[in-house]
User: Which sequence fits this backbone?
């Protein structure tokens, strides 16, 4: 995520969630759940009669994969990426994992495949031993027609030389240029689009980004991050950024289909809450991000603990509230996650705080919670994909006033913001109490967030923005080629 995000995988759930969602999105399965779901109170909205369920199923978009449907006149609208048909694109990822950067690059791979581009993927830092996650992600790409090559073989070099476009994903991927291309680096740089997601200072190493001034262009997820890179590269490294494009991300069609289907959300809500031991009437505040100190799970739990004390001290009448941490991985963050669990135990919050393993499928959790907490620290998120995903599910957002979050939400309208760092603990706890005690405010913020997503953070918005960048890079490459 990424980073935005936004997504991970649980081995135990790999087969269960995708199958359930596919079943839910079929009309026959939806009808099977009608009677059972009608009187459930799990979702944010209410459904008055069975006719509403049927109309929702009929109104779902059924367009093809290559075009979007214009509901005003029902005429197909050309995909803005259609010009990439038959183009050869090489995607270079620094790693293949369930973090935001690689998953976002995979999404670009699928968007390009939909319009008929030839797409090749290489992973620069790949584990030598077998890994279930890498195996799963590679086969997901292969099943969608993306070719997967070794990053260090002659095949990768030949592809880079022949490619119409090369996308380097994240600053760390820059190491691949000298390590693999060697004497061919200068031939490839004019057609390189460098997609940068990082906000942390340790990525500003000359060994990573020394070729940055000579590439076709850089694409960054937020204006905040773009300005940070422009200033930092000049001041710390003495190099100049290339032509830089800011591209805000968008939600996939698949996620929007679930977010806009009340029946699907209702059943997912039932299932997740049952698995967590949370009742339908309880309130759930969730932080969905890989567990690490930079994502602020420790400060969120402190805020949550303070909110419980405030509710008790003020004798407020609110439903039981719960905190859910989605993104747990004891193997990756053993020390930090042990601290989190010890804090929960020491404060007797075991029944109120729930840890969920990393998962590629976040929709079930977005369908089952009431508020998203985006608590990324320091400079915040580069963009924060999970934020727009939550807004699609009509969830209010409690976020840090930092980074790309400031370009997504509207404070006081779609979200309530608090400072990053320890000084944000009490403001966040007060915001938790504020939303816990005001259902109308939660629903209004959620609705306005959804409207904002529909206006600017959908897949076709992102495709349009990326298409403009790719055209610029291809024109730049052609101009450089003619001059040489």
Assistant:
């Amino acid at each position: 995520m990424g980073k935005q995000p936004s997504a991970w995988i649980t081995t135990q759930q790999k087969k269960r969630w995708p199958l359930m969602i596919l079943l839910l999105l079929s009309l026959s399965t939806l009808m099977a759940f009608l009677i059972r779901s009608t009187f459930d109170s799990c979702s944010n909205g209410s459904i008055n009669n069975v006719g509403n369920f049927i109309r929702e199923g009929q109104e779902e978009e059924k367009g093809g994969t290559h075009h979007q449907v214009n509901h005003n006149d029902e005429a197909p609208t050309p995909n803005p990426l259609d010009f990439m048909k038959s183009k050869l694109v090489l995607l270079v990822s620094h790693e293949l994992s369930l973090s935001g950067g690689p998953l976002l690059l995979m999404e670009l791979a699928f968007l390009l495949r939909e319009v008929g581009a030839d797409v090749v993927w290489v992973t620069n830092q790949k584990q030598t031993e077998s890994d279930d996650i890498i195996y799963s992600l590679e086969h997901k790409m292969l099943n969608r027609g993306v070719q997967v090559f070794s990053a260090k073989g002659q095949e990768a070099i030949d592809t880079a030389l022949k490619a119409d476009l090369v996308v380097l994903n994240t600053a760390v991927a820059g190491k691949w240029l000298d390590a693999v291309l060697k004497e061919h680096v200068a031939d490839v740089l004019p057609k390189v689009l460098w997609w940068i997601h990082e906000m942390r200072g340790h990525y500003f190493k000359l060994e990573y980004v020394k070729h940055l001034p000579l590439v076709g262009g850089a694409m960054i997820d937020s204006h905040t991050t773009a300005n940070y890179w422009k200033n930092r590269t000049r001041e710390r490294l003495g190099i100049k950024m290339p032509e830089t494009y800011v591209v805000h991300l968008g939600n996939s069609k698949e996620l929007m289909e679930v977010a806009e289907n009340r029946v699907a959300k209702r059943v997912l809500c039932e299932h997740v809450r049952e698995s967590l031991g949370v009742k339908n009437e309880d309130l759930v505040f969730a932080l969905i991000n890989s567990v690490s100190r930079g994502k602020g799970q420790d400060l969120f739990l402190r805020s949550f603990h303070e909110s419980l004390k405030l509710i008790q001290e003020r004798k407020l009448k609110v439903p039981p509230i719960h905190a859910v941490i989605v993104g747990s991985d004891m193997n990756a963050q053993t020390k930090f996650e042990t601290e989190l669990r010890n804090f929960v135990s020491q404060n007797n919050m075991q029944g109120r705080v729930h840890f969920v393993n990393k998962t590629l499928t976040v929709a079930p959790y977005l369908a089952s919670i009431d508020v998203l907490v985006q608590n990324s620290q320091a400079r915040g998120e580069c963009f924060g994909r999970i934020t727009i995903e939550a807004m699609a599910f009509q969830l209010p957002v409690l976020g840090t006033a930092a980074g790309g979050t400031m370009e997504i939400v509207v404070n006081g309208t779609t979200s309530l913001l608090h400072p990053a760092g320890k000084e944000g603990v009490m403001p966040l706890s007060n915001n938790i109490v504020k939303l816990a005690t005001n259902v109308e405010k939660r629903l209004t913020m959620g609705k306005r967030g959804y409207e904002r997503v529909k206006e600017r953070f959908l897949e076709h918005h992102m495709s349009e923005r990326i298409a403009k960048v790719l055209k610029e890079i291809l024109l730049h490459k052609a101009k450089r080629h003619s001059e040489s």
About this structure: The radius of gyration is 23 Å. Residues 40 and 266 are 8 Å apart (CA to CA). Residues 459-483 form the longest helix (25 residues). The domain at 254-457 is CATH 3.40.50.2000 (Rossmann fold).
